[in-house]
Amino acid sequence: MSVVTNTTTIGAIEAPSRRNTELMMLAFAVAVPVFAYINVGLAIDGKLPTGVLGYALGLGLLAAVAHLVVRKFAKYADPLLLPLAVLLNGLGLVMIWRLDQSPRLIQRAEAQWGAFTPDAPKQMLYSAIGIALFVGVLLLLKDHRILQRYTYISMVTALVLLILPMFFPARNGAKIWINLGPINIQPGEFAKIIIAIFFSGYLMVKRDALALASRRVMGLYLPRGRDLGPILVVWAMSILILVFETDLGTSLLFFGLFVIMLYVATERTSWIVFGLLMSAVGAVGVATFEPHVQQRVEFWLNPFAEETWAQSEQIGQALMSFGAGGTLGTGLGQGNSDLIMFAANSDFILSSFGEELGLAGMMAFLMIYGLIVERGVRTALAARDPFGKLLAVGLSGAFAIQVFVVSGGVMGLIPLTGMTMPFVAAGGSSVIANWALIAILIRISDTARRPAPAPAPSPDAEMTQVVRP
Amino acid sequence: MSELTLTVMRLGFLAVLWLFVIVAVQVIRSDLFGTRVTQRGSRRSGDTRPQQTRQAAAPPQQRQQQRQQSGGRQRRGAPTKLVVSEGTLTGTTVALQGQTITLGRAHDSTIVLDDDYASSRHARIYPDRDGQWIVEDLGSTNGTYLDRTRLTTPTPIPLGAPIRIGKTVIELRK
């Protein structure tokens, strides 16, 4: 007999885990860089590169390990964060390997240091360590709210990490490194995660005071003087970083992060106005005193001036390489971005991509970064606890600011700073720290998207009043 | 490597990169959560295509029966909507499209009654095989009344007859 079902069901969808979508996207995200690798090999040597199998297996293995761990320990996590990060990491590896093949860079390295060491194997190792840290964070951090307990410890840790590079010698004009024997660490990369934890913990407690105790003047809510304390402290910190470490990027990152999180926590536009004013004052003030910053601004304003070219030809070269790329690019392996001799595969890797993939590829890159940030903000919207919300906003905000600062610097929109493009650029600290950042976002999104436990069986029934005749 | 191959690869790579972005955006699109209304085998008269496919698949015996059903569905005087005529939800209408309507204070009811005298799962209204609408009390505390009589069994609803649930009155209209 035909079954007449009572036909329409209206109900909330039970949250699907979406792990299979993630697996599919991951396969795609591994395939794209492998295609790029083959493309580079064919363009440079005219034959299939020998390392392609090893590269595909390596990247695939890293992706598979990360996926299995997510499947087991963060079942309901966002399906896109991992594939997007794997794609960026993979493409970065390809570009670093491509620049390793460049005879110009090899010659230069041999002339300068006597030997050439390829960066791609190192970067593969860093990626593996990054994935290991990713796995470690997901295994150890069962609930992101645990981080809330370490609010002030993380403040101290972040301060130490930010101050430490002052005591180490400057490299290329910026003191952002700690040298521990053979290992060089950029502590700023880790500090950005730790300070986001501090800001979330702090603002979660203080946001009511910051949001409500204020006077309204000319349509703006002016906070009380004593509530201005923390923002002044952070501002002073970032100015100090700028002065003593001459690192514009890190300084911008921390102040911007704090302003974003203040705004999200309090919903007061006045904080953004204050933040912009204070950073403008700080930047102008420091730029008038600090020669290193002045120099950077000078390079930025006149990238093709003779004196700029004599000291730092990279900015001009980067602009030239973007121009050489045009709309569709020269094709992978066929550009001349290796003419940017110094830091071509780290700070300036974006201009290598800009030349070889053109505007179209650049847009795709920025879209991918944008999607990561979007997923982070989406996680914040879905998160049920205020700490998780703030932390997700903070981490994705830090990520977004970093992408803006680096790409803006390379493209000549803002003065260049010594930061690295997350996941793409060569450099251990950056890759490892960003994998940890993605791991925390995945943990928060897992908690946020996990279906709520079933409600207690119908509490309404007991409250029904009985009609008494 | 020939120039042509390299050009094809260059454009192909850009296409693949953008394809990835587009697929990722599609994933986001399918990822938006919320309430989903699934219609399984709707029997609206205007919606004939799913019915045809179902008939084609069904053995002839059943097909006859379904024809009867659709005949019953299309007869004149079948109610098309449910209207709340008294109570806090006065004015609410729900289109009758062959789906079961649950009434009660539970949040997953089709009509969530804000009525102290209603139970969480109070009653349901559903079409039987002939398209006749039936009201059934689901063991409520204060009972469901069709006109003045308290319901004890599933009862067909005449057009325009008031169904009382607590302080709420609903009726079926054309």
UniProtKB/TrEMBL annotation, chain A:
It is found in: Membrane. It comes from the Bacteria. One of its GO terms (molecular function) is lipid-linked peptidoglycan transporter activity. GO terms for biological process: cell division; regulation of cell shape. The chain crosses the membrane at residues 23-44, 50-69, 81-99, 124-141, 150-168, 188-205, 226-244, 250-266, 271-289, 357-377, 389-414, 420-442. Keywords: Cell shape, Membrane, Transmembrane, Transmembrane helix. GO terms for cellular component: cell division site; plasma membrane. Residues 449-469 are annotated as: Disordered. It is a multi-pass membrane protein. Pfam families: FTSW_RODA_SPOVE. InterPro entries: FtsW/RodA. This is FtsW/RodA/SpoVE family cell cycle protein.
UniProtKB/TrEMBL annotation, chain B:
The keyword Disulfide bond does not apply. Residues 49-72 have a biased composition (Low complexity). Residues 101-151 form the FHA domain. Residues 38-79 are annotated as: Disordered. The keyword Phosphoprotein applies. Pfam families: FHA. InterPro entries: Cell_Proc_Reg/RNA_Proc (IPR050923), FHA_dom (IPR000253), SMAD_FHA_dom_sf (IPR008984). Keywords: Phosphoprotein. It comes from the Bacteria. This is FHA domain-containing protein.
